[in-house]
Each structure stands twice: as structure tokens, then as C-alpha cells.
Design a protein that fits this description.
5 helices, six-stranded mixed sheet, single chain
């Protein structure tokens, strides 16, 4: 039985069927979206974000895009990779760099947002991407060629894992040292059951596990879709809903849309 439970929990990080949650007047709508610098349609991205009318938007790979049509939003300074936009007062924004300063690698962006008299720390995450090409992960009938492809993939993985370790340590410090409840969202470039997932979710709740239904796969550029986008939150908060919006294909990621109740449980 214990073996069965150990298997079920990892599976639920990919596919889940949560019970209906009661809507809360304190709930805020959050959109997390890797927009691939708007390369698949800048206007489409802007139109989508405007239509969502979210309280907080966390973007990854924003490519330094401007958002002139998103009226009524405060935003963090442009850094070419991460942006947080919100309808509420925003302060204490700070880029989080990897532990290895020689890499000068952005790992995340924090911003404190005051909502209805209380402050919450939002952390927008973008971990270094694995430099895959589609041909690298496409196996054929030649076992010798396939073996070489697998070895090539492993060689590509190792240095990226090392970068992730540095990035995760710094992001974890930001989370642990926050004086406020935390909401962490973004593109982790890591699947569930990974080192990155376990360490960044430590002490937090996974919104999909709490309130998600169906599949959480969010990256669809390859033939096999995978889950690498997440929303985590402090245990004093509560997820009301979580959905991967597959109605739009304006990036190689689908947007993740969640509602989080800010009332104490």
C-alpha cells in the first residue's frame, strides 16, 4: 500500500482531479505565462493578457516587451526576461541572480504587492533552459544512433542541472527570508518529481495539486507535452482554481491561470 501511495502522489503532479472549491471574495486571479518574447504574435499576447483581466501577471521570456495597452497595471522595470504586472501597489522589486556571480544568471524576480491592506511577496521564476533541439529527442529505429542521441542529451543535461542548483538555492533563500506570505510562479524548466520541484515547493503548496483538474502539461513544443510551469503558495493561503489554458497557441507554453484566496485558512 505504501508503494502505491508513493506512486500516486507523483502522478497527481501531472494529472489531477481536485474537488470543487468555494469561491472566495478575497481571491485574486493570477496568470503566469512564458510568452517567448512575443515571437509567435506580440499583439495576440497583449490581447490575451488584457482579456484575462488578472490581478497579477507573471511573465517569463518577455524579451523586453512593452505593455502600452495594459491600462491600470503597475509593472516592474524591464530586464528582458521577467516582468510582474499588477493592479495593486508594487514595491521592493529585486532581481534574483544565481549563486555563481560569474554567470550573472537571472533566476527570478521578487516584488512585494499590497492587496487590501496586506503585503504578499510574489516571485517570478525562470530557470535556465535545457538547450534541446527537436532532432535530439527524436529516436528512430537505429539502436546505435539512438544510444548516441541519449548520451548527447545526458551531456547537455549535466551543466544545466548545475546551473539550476545555484538558481534554486538563491530563490529558496528569497522564499525562506520573506516576512510575507509568498506566491511563486513561473517556468521552472523542470518536470515534477525533480530536484527543482522538490526544493522550490518545500514548505509551500502546489496550486495544481490543490485545485487543478485534468492535465497540467504546459509546454507543447515537442510531440510529448510536459509540465514545467508552476504556481506555489504559502500554506496560509488557499488555491481556489488552477487551469492550463489550451485555448491559445501564442507561445510554446500555454498560460497558467489560477485563483488564490488570500484569507487565512
Amino acid at each position: 500500500m505504501l508503494v502505491g501511495l508513493a506512486f500516486v502522489n507523483p502522478v497527481k503532479r501531472w494529472v489531477n482531479f481536485s474537488s470543487e472549491k468555494k469561491e472566495s471574495s478575497s481571491a485574486i486571479k493570477i496568470v503566469s505565462f512564458n510568452i517567448k518574447a512575443g515571437l509567435m504574435g506580440r499583439d495576440e499576447v497583449l490581447n490575451y493578457l488584457r482579456a484575462q483581466d488578472a490581478d497579477v501577471i507573471l511573465l517569463q521570456e518577455d524579451g523586453g516587451m512593452e505593455y502600452p495597452t495594459l491600462k491600470g497595471y503597475n509593472r516592474t522595470k524591464s530586464n528582458g526576461i521577467l516582468t510582474i504586472l499588477t493592479k495593486y501597489h508594487l514595491s521592493n522589486e529585486k532581481l534574483i541572480f544565481s549563486e555563481d556571480e560569474s554567470m550573472n544568471l537571472q533566476s527570478g524576480l521578487q516584488a512585494d504587492i499590497e492587496i487590501k491592506g496586506k503585503t504578499y511577496r510574489f516571485v517570478d521564476v525562470y530557470l535556465y533552459p535545457f538547450q534541446f533541439e527537436k532532432k535530439m529527442v527524436k529516436l528512430d529505429g537505429n539502436s546505435e544512433d539512438n544510444e548516441q542521441k541519449v548520451k548527447g542529451v545526458v551531456r547537455k543535461l549535466i551543466p544545466t542541472f548545475k546551473k539550476h542548483q545555484d538558481q534554486v538555492r538563491k530563490i529558496s533563500e528569497t522564499i525562506e527570508n520573506s516576512p510575507y506570505p509568498v506566491i511563486v510562479a513561473g517556468d521552472f524548466n523542470s518536470v515534477p518529481n525533480s530536484y527543482e520541484y522538490y526544493h522550490l515547493s518545500d514548505g509551500l503548496e502546489d496550486a495544481f495539486m490543490t485545485a487543478g483538474k485534468g492535465s497540467a502539461t504546459s509546454f507543447h513544443d515537442y510531440k510529448f507535452p510536459i509540465r514545467i510551469d508552476y504556481v506555489f503558495y504559502s500554506k496560509s493561503l488557499k488555491a481556489i482554481s488552477y487551469a492550463v489554458d489550451r485555448s491559445v497557441s501564442i507561445s510554446d507554453h500555454y498560460p497558467v491561470v489560477s485563483r488564490i484566496s488570500l484569507n487565512d485558512k
